[in-house]
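URGENT: need a sanity check before tomorrow's submission.

F., can you look over the Delta-aminolevulinic acid dehydratase record below? I want to be sure the sequence and structure line up before it goes out.
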Amino acid sequence: MLPENSTTDKPLNCFQRPRRLRQTATLRRMVRETILSVDDLIYPMFVTEGEEQKVEIASMPGCYRYSLDLLLKEIAEVSRLGINAIALFPVIPENKKDDTGKESYNLEGLVQQTVKAIKQAIPEIVVITDVALDPFTTHGHDGLVDENGTILNDPTVEVLVKMALSQAAAGADFVAPSDMMDGRVGAIRQALDAEGYINVGILAYSAKYASAYYGPFRDALDSTPKFGDKKTYQMDPANAREALKEIELDIAEGADMVMVKPALAYLDIICQVKETTNLPVAAYNVSGEYAMIKAAAQMGWIDEKQVILETLTSMKRAGADLILTYFAKEVALMLL
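Structure tokens as predicted:
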């Protein structure tokens, strides 16, 4: 219904009409600035001991802890969907945890045996292994702890180096230190090179924030800290310049790719990091971000598919070259 004084033969004096490029789906695709592709996705996956085990994570609907036999089948499926890389996270039983995290560098440990099996069965998939002690320690912190509850930096780095070397020996393509200890990237790079693993890359969790979005992930690994928090080593969510400092240090120490974690509440950080480096920038669409979308979708409050695509597109638009996301398999099916 036109307003009373309106006329169709006297158009507004508009030389620019951006809506012309939005008229059809074909036009919108032609001028789209940001394209989300399955090649952008890294799929985080959880491995546990045993056989024929596929246990859904209550706080992460659609995500599972897999025993190795079923994990291999799932990886074969995601590889067929075009997903090129997985990030591996272990669920370690309590009887193999201690205060030192020594199971983390056991050459016959869960991670090491899993990597060997994956590379034998599906050699083309890129395997990224986590380097941090929280899944392996009784206290749930990413580093060694002294009698006063202080997280020890340099002794922790020594253990992380052993861990990274054991993962490289198993066949990992990238090791991904997520612990946020100072100097660990340089120490790992030097050790890898000294042992002949010059082609094993480092995906550094460079700007990893002390975020409240990690809760479901800690449920998945049973790695919630038994005391205190992680604010003395993970970053203050209020800081942006500090992220650029951390990125600069990790690049100088030999990182091949850098990461911002979490992603959704830190799109500004992703953008700033992308403007300061030519290295690939990864963003981690973390468990809390995943769980919120799943919960809202289950309540019927959102269009799940469209919100997933919009959320991941926002991360790529901000500057992420790669996105670690629990939605990877779903998105790959959407993009077929």
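My own read: Residues 128 and 227 are 29 Å apart (CA to CA). DSSP finds eleven helices and twelve strands in the chain. If you see anything odd, call me.
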